[in-house]
Amino acid sequence: MIFGAIEAGGTKFVCAVSDENLSLIERISIPTTTPDETMKAVIQFFEGYPEIKAIGIGSFGPIDINPKSDTYGSITSTPKLAWANYAFLDVMKQHFDITYAWTTDVNAAAFGEIKKGAAAGSSSCVYITVGTGIGAGIIIQDKIIEGFSHPEAGHIGIKRHPDDHFEGNCPYHADCLEGMASGPAIGKRYCDSAKILDPTHQAWEIEADYLAQALVAMTLIVSPEKIVLGGGVMKQTQLFPLIRARFKTLLNGYVVTPNLEDYILPCALGDNAGLTGCLLLAIDAYHK
User: Fold this and answer.
1) PANTHER family under this entry (predicted)?
2) How many CA atoms lie within 13 A of 40 on its CB side?
3) Peptide bond preceding 224: is omega within 30 degrees of 0, i.e. cis?
4) Residue 232 to residue 244: CA distance in whole angstroms
């Protein structure tokens, strides 16, 4: 049996087909331009696989994940204006009458990491991506946690570091987690890309403080078995010991966690986390 995946990102759409064992048959990357251009290429790709059984879609958001909603399956209030209120799932269903799994890109990555990545063997995890934006996917008892909408943990409030006078980069909240700790926030604060800042730069101490605050909040609210960190900023591996140390200080022994070396982890699937999760969600949806 053949299954499909669409990892719909703000810069590119990655589409793939695989068998049930996740052996890739084909994978392509399509630039995210306008819905007409991008979706035409997506549909053409999957038309080459008429035997496909299900497609898992992990999309940039915000998206409508409430099956009772009139706009279920749509991208909603995205700053990518061409995609605002775009009925993504309806368009796919017009072309392919098959089973779908529909969620956010970070939820898909979380599902990939708990099934095949750093959190494999656990029944709960939080996956946080730190890159152009910040988002979190939460898995509890093998289920993606969603309510009337999906978590937007990148926009939680945090305490400002005493040495940080940056005004924040979020157009909605200024100094929320994403506004202070995303890749663009680092670049704007220091007039330098996070990729080229020296590993000993004070930027990483400040970054670790903000991320540790978020991880403490997740620990106290969700108590996951694992916290997995991915995204472009987290390729700065010097962050992990800084985050663990700051996390320990902030938590101050209030609850007993697993050993932090085994609790706060880099993602194991890297840039393939989202695509892997989409394929797994497609397989899961088909069998259910």
Assistant:
1) FRUCTOKINASE, TRANSCRIPTIONAL REPRESSOR MPRA
2) 5
3) no
4) 19
112 in a domain, yes or no?
no
Angle, helix 35-47 to helix 88-95, in steps of 10 degrees:
40
Strands 226-230 and 264-266: parallel
**Residues 31 and 11: beta-carbon distance below 8 Å:** yes
Position 214, amino acid = A
- Domain span at residue 279? 2-104+271-287
Examine the domain organization and report whether 241 and 134 are in the same domain. Answer: yes
The reply to whether the predicted model has a pTM over 0.90 is yes
| CATH number of the domain bearing residue 33 | 3.30.420.40
φ, ψ of residue 8 to 5 degrees: the values are: -90, 100
User: Do 123 and 246 fall within a single domain?
Assistant: yes
Q: What are phi and psi of 118, to 5 degrees?
A: -65, -25
Per-residue pLDDT of 185-232, as tens digits, reads 999 999 877 788 999 999 999 999 999 999 999 999 999 999 999 999
SS3 29: strand
Q: Which of 1, 33, 31 is nearest to 17 (CA)?
A: 1
Report the pLDDT value the prediction gives residue 134, as an integer from 0 to 100.
95
Query: How many domains is the chain built from?
Result: 2
- State how beta strands 24-31 and 12-19 pair: antiparallel
Contact between 265 and 81 under an 8 Å Cβ cutoff? The reply is: no
Residues 6+ away with beta carbon under 8 Å from 187? 193, 194
- Rounded to an integer, what distance in angstroms lies between the CA atom of residue 151 and that of residue 35? 25
DSSP symbols for 128-196: EEESSSEEEEEEETTEE--SSS---GGG-B-PPPTT-----SBTTTBSBHHHHHSHHHHHHHHTS-TTT
* Nearest residue to 111 (alpha-carbon basis) of 141, 147, 134: 141
Does residue 109 lie within any of the structural domains?
A: no
* DSSP designation for 161: P
Distance between CA atoms of residues 52 and 168, nearest Å: 45
SS3 1: coil
The confidence score (pLDDT) of residue 161 equals 97
